[in-house]
């Protein structure tokens, strides 16, 4: 499941793709590709600890409006083998330097057999919003951000869901980025979805030429297995990504 957030970790499983808006041009089209040792999403592996290859296309307008599509391989132990996400929204920056972003994201899993999603449709829709601010006049230029998402019928039709993430990023010497994230996944119907859970990640990244190399540790705080089952909730993920 594509991860759109204010995370300053370059790339994802979620990774993560972003739309860059160039002031000197009205339209911007970019492509992103990545390969990772795992595809972690909100505390759970989407590929049963196997490598993931992902990529997408983004369109941005100088007004702040953007749209995109992104895809990755997945493995839930059934007929699902690909995820395709479609998203769009509008982003901008306030006069005080706070960046903002609101949009919607549709997660689709084409080719899933009806016998596999009999408990609930895998496809679902989510709306999201985020805020981000960089203290550029402070050493290490810390960036803080928050991300909120709501789905009226989350993956597997388990119930309404709410997700909140808090991010902190630091610019270290030699162009190295250090990022921390805390996430809290909540459900309206815990009997259907399992307990609400919390997770975290810590990662470092480095841009080399047109590539970004990222190494992150994903950890469980509590009850992550209540939703993801016996799948791994702790992992070291290394990824190489590029956008052009």
> What fraction, in percent, of the residue positions are helical?
under 10%
Distance between the termini: 22 Å
Strand content: over 45%
- Mean pLDDT value: 89
**Quick one: how many beta strands?**
14
User: What is the N-to-C order of secondary-structure elements (H for helix, E for strand)?
Assistant: EEEEEEEEEEEHEEHE
Please state how the strands of the largest beta sheet are arranged side by side: 1-4-5-6-7-8-9-10-11-12-13-14
Report the C-alpha radius of gyration, rounded: 17 Å
Q: Quaternary arrangement of the chains shown?
A: single chain
Global shape: globular
Domains (count): 1
What are the main properties of this structure?
244 residues, Porin, 2 helices, 14 strands
Descriptive report:
By secondary structure, the protein is mainly beta. The protein has one domain (27-243): Porin (Beta Barrel), CATH 2.40.160.40. The chain contains two helices and 14 strands; from the N terminus they run βββββββββββαββαβ. It has helices spanning 190-193, 225-228, and strands at 27-36, 40-41, 44-45, 52-61, 65-73, 82-93, 99-108, 124-134, 143-151, 161-172, 176-187, 197-208, 211-222, 235-243. The strands form two sheets. Strands 1-4-5-6-7-8-9-10-11-12-13-14 form a twelve-stranded antiparallel barrel. Strands 2-3 form a two-stranded antiparallel sheet. Strand 10 (161-172) and strand 11 (176-187) form a beta hairpin. The longest helix is centred in the last third of the chain and has 4 residues, at 190-193. It is globular and about 55 Å long. It starts with 26 loop residues before the first strand and ends with a strand.
């Amino acid at each position: 499941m594509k991860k759109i957030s204010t995370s300053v970790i370059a790339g994802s499983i979620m990774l993560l793709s972003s739309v860059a808006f160039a002031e000197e041009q009205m339209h911007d089209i970019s492509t992103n590709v990545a390969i990772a040792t795992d595809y972690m999403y909100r505390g759970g592996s989407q590929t049963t600890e196997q490598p993931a290859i992902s990529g997408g296309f983004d369109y941005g307008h100088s007004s702040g409006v953007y749209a995109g599509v992104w895809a990755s391989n997945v493995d839930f132990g059934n007929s699902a083998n690909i995820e395709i996400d479609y998203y769009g929204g509008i982003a901008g920056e306030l006069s005080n330097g706070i960046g903002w972003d609101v949009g919607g994201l549709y997660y689709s899993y084409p080719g899933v057999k009806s016998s596999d999603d009999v408990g609930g449709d895998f496809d679902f829709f989510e709306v999201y919003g985020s805020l981000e601010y960089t203290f550029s006049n402070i050493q290490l230029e810390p960036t803080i951000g928050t991300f909120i998402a709501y789905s009226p019928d989350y993956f597997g039709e388990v119930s309404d869901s709410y997700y909140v993430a808090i991010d902190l990023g630091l610019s270290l010497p030699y162009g190295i980025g250090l990022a921390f994230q805390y996430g809290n996944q909540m459900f309206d119907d815990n009997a259907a979805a399992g307990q609400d859970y919390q997770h975290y990640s810590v990662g470092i990244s480095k841009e080399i030429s047109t590539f970004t190399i990222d190494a992150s540790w994903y950890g469980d705080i509590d009850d992550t297995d209540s939703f993801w089952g016996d799948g791994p909730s702790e992992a070291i993920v290394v990824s190489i990504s590029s956008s052009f």
